[in-house]
Design brief:
- 60% of the residues lie in helices and 4% in strands.
- By secondary structure, the protein is mainly alpha-helical.
- β1 and β2 form a beta hairpin.
- It is globular and about 65 Å long.
- The N and C termini lie far apart (62 Å).
């Protein structure tokens, strides 16, 4: 049934290949555990006690709460699938509760730091230097995800309507407006792109390597870390930090929460509301500094 579940994820749920791989690894680890600890060869045989035992074993291994909860979520999805398929008659994960975790506020870059990065950095004049500039500008000025940047093509960049169209989670497209500043950056980058590759095809990926092939995740991570380290003291430099910064700065400037939700491509406000905590902390600081009775 494991194969049927993976097929269900790929073709019915249409989750990303990365998520499918994570589910598969979690289930393989669970099957190995129940086989070693209880002599069970099929996960359909496992009950509440076996699942709880695996949860305890993961905690004793020192795994983070988020990792343990993710693995439990994998099992919940798997056993719900078995229940719907009438392979089992009772869901053994029904009473398994997620571990409680402290709420970590998303980090973000201060406005002065990101301004200095984008205006003071001496990006090389060659293609790679201007492509790196485009990576940093696009991530901060649109808030798109790493996967959305990697999948963006020139055909989805509309300099007339000042917008880009990206494919987000759940295979859903969304349109994001671009600023005049970003438009100027794209116009310049396009010129450098065409000089490097002679002809710019609409099917070309927006961000590419020198061989004209699409960029890959680790490449973008290296670019972001390289330039953030010049101006920002943050050990967790990543493309997602740029997305956090985009959202936080918008809310700090008074943007509507629903509008930010749509720009980020969140399915619900719950995912977007975490950024309001950073805004509230800023308001508290202003209040304590300015109010005579604070």
């Amino acid at each position: 049934m494991l194969f049927s579940f993976i097929s269900y994820l790929e073709h019915e749920k249409r989750v990303s290949p990365h998520t499918v791989l994570a589910y598969r690894k979690d289930l393989d680890q669970f099957i190995l555990f129940i086989n070693t600890a209880f002599g069970m060869s099929n996960p359909e045989e496992a009950g509440h006690a076996e699942i709880r035992a695996w949860m305890v074993a993961l905690i004793e291994e020192g795994l983070e709460v988020t990792t343990v909860n993710r693995k439990m979520a994998t099992l919940r999805s798997f056993y719900k699938f078995l229940l719907r398929s009438q392979i089992i008659t009772k869901d053994p994960t029904f009473k398994i509760k997620s571990l409680k975790k402290g709420r970590n506020l998303p980090g973000f870059i201060q406005e002065k730091e990101i301004y200095n990065l984008l205006t003071s950095t001496n990006f090389d004049a060659d293609f790679e230097g201007q492509r790196d500039r485009m990576v940093m500008q696009t991530l901060y000025l649109t808030g798109i995800r790493l996967s959305e940047l990697l999948g963006l093509k020139w055909s989805a960049v509309d300099l007339i309507q000042l917008q880009i169209k990206v494919l987000g989670k759940g295979k859903k497209y969304r349109v994001i407006p671009i600023s005049s500043e970003l438009r100027l950056g794209i116009v310049h980058y396009k010129k450098v792109f065409e000089e490097c590759f002679s002809i710019q095809n609409e099917n070309d990926f927006f961000i590419v390597r020198l061989n004209r092939e699409a960029a890959y995740p680790m490449m973008i991570y290296r670019i972001v870390k390289k330039y953030l380290n010049l101006f920002v003291r943050n050990t967790k430099s990543s493309p997602h930090l740029m997305r956090h910064t985009f959202a936080t700065h918008l809310l700090n400037k008074g943007a509507d929460l629903n509008a930010v939700k749509d720009l980020l491509g969140h399915a619900s406000l719950a995912a977007t509301q975490v950024y309001t905590h950073n805004s509230i902390e800023k308001l508290k600081a202003v209040y304590e500094q300015a109010h005579p009775k604070a």
